[in-house]
Amino acid sequence: MLKDYLTANQQRHLSELLDLLRIPSVSTDPTRQGEVRRAAEFVVGKLAELRFEVQLFETPRHPVVVAHYRVSDSAPTVLIYGHYDVQPPEPLDLWISPPFEPVVENGLIVARGASDDKGQLYAHIKGVEALLATTGTLPVNLTFLIEGEEEIGSPNLTPLIEAHREQLAADIVLISDGAMVAPDTPTITYGLRGLAYVEVLVRGAGRDLHSGAYGGGAPNAINALAKIIAQLHNEQGRVTVPGFYDAVLELTDTEREAFRQVPFDEAHFKREAGLAATPGEAGYSLLERLWARPTLDCNGIGGGFQGDGAKTVIAAEARAKISCRLVPNQDPHDITAKLAAHLKRLAPPGVEVTVTELHGALPAVLRACAAGPLEAPAVQVAARALATVFGRPAVFARTGGTIPVVSTFQELLGAQVVMVGLGLESDKVHSPNEKFDLVNYYRGIEVSTALLAAFADMP
Ligand SMILES: [Zn+2]
Fold it and tell me: Phi/psi of residue 366, each to 5°?
C-alpha cells in the first residue's frame, strides 16, 4: 500500500522538489532576503496542507519554520531538523545549467540545494505525506524544525531553541543533511568533531631590522614562530600541548570494529585529494584519525617580506592561524587555554606571543548508553529500519567536520540525535553542479517512513 502510493506519486514528489529548488534562497546574500522567506513560506504551505500546526518564527535575519503533528501522549516525539537555505551558487560559469533552474538528467537532479539540504529535507516531508495518506496518521508525534540560516552558521537557532525548549522537546532528533559513506550504503553518522581556532601573533624586535646590521644579534619573529609550530607535534604525530588528550573519549571495541566494516576506499581518498601519504597519529587507522581523534593544524602563516624580489629584513612580527579539531569530550575553551599557555611556554627569549581565540564549537557524539554510543536504542532501531529499506546492513560512521547545532539538541532538548545522510559525498554540495540522485531522493522518502515507524516501536 505504502509502496504503491510512493510509486504512484513519484512524478509529483519530484516536481514539488523542483519547485522548491527554483527558489534562490541564498541566506548570506542580503539581496535575496525575500527569496529566502519565499522558501520558508513554501515549506510552511506544504506542511499546512498535511494538517501540521505550523508557525513561522521571526529572527533578526531569516525565519524558522516549526510544525507539529501530535498523535498521542504515549508515542515518542521525533523532531526532524533541516534547512531551506542554500549556499551561493557562484562561480556561475562552471554550472552546466543555471543553478536555480533545476534539470533532471541521467538520474540526477542538478540544482543548488538539490542535496544540501532541500532534497533531503523534502524527502522527509514527502515521507510524512505518504504515511498520512496511507494510514491516516503518523506513528510518532512529529515536529519539524527547519531553519534558513544553516549556511551562515545558524546564528539565531540556539536562542530560539532555548526560548522554546518545552515546545521543541523531543525524544529523538533526526537529521538528514549529509552523505552515505558510499553509494547504496545505509549510513548512521553518530559523532562529529568540534573546533578550537586561535590566531597567534609573535613579536620580536620593535621594528623590522636590516639583516646585515642586526642579523646574529636580534630575535627573528618568523624563525621563532616556525620553531614553535614545529614543536606542536611529536615524532608519533601526537599533539604536544599538555593535557590535550585528557578529556578524549576513547573508541570502544565495537566502534573500532564498526569502522573496519565501513567500505572506505583509501586509494580513492588519496587520489581525490592528491595525497602521496596520509600522515597522522600513530596507533590509529586512517578513519579513526579522521573521525575520532583530535588534531592540530596550522591553517595560515605570514610575516616579513613577501613581495617580488629580495629584501634583507629581520621580521618584527609573524602571525599564524591554528585550529584544533576536537572530539568528545574535549571542550573548546579548555583546549584554547591549554594551547595558548603552551605556545607562550615555547616562545624563545626576546619573543612575545599573543594568542587570540577566534571561535570554537563543541564536539558531539550521540548520547551513549552505558555500553557505548552504538548501543543506544534509537541508533539500533534506526539501523534495523535502514537495513530493511536498503536490503543490506547499515554502517556506522562519524564525520570529521562540525555541526554545532547537534550538541545544542543534545544539551538543550536532551534528545538522542540520529543522523542519516541521504546524499552522497559526490553530490558537490557548496560547489557548482550540485546534484542529488533521483534514486536517493525516492529512497529517502521510503527511509523516512521506515525510520518514523521504527522509532514508534523503540523500547
Ligand atoms: Zn546542509
Answer: -55, 140
- Tell how far the Cα of 38 is from the centroid of ligand 1, in angstroms: 18
Which pLDDT tens digit goes with each residue over 317-330? Answer: 999 999 999 998 89
CB 199 within 8 A of CB 350: no
Q: Is 53 a catalytic residue?
A: no
Cβ atoms of 351 and 221 closer than 8 Å: yes
Q: Which CATH topology does 2-192+363-456 take?
A: Aminopeptidase (3.40.630)
The rounded Å distance from CA 428 to ligand 1 centre is 12
Out of 35, 85, 151, 177, pick the active-site residue.
85
- Give the residue ranges of the chain where pLDDT is below 50: none
State the Rg of the chain over Cα. 25
| Ligand 1 centroid, distance to 147 Cα (angstroms) | 10
CA 129-133-135 angle, to 5 degrees, is 115
Helix/strand number for the chain, H first, E second: 15, 20
Q: What's residue 454's pLDDT?
A: 97
The ranges of the chain annotated as CATH 3.30.70.360 are 194-248+294-359
Range 194-248+294-359: architecture per CATH: 2-Layer Sandwich (3.30)
Dist. CA 85 → ligand 1 center (Å): 8
Q: Is 85 annotated as catalytic?
A: yes
* Residues near ion ligand 1 (Cβ under 5 Å): 116-117, 177
Q: How far is the CA of 121 from the centre of ligand 1 (A)?
A: 10
Where do you find CATH 3.40.630.10 in the chain?
2-192+363-456
Q: From the candidates 116, 117, 129, 150, give the one annotated as an active-site residue.
A: 150
- Whole-model pTM: value is 0.88
Separation CA 390–CA 443 (nearest Å): 8
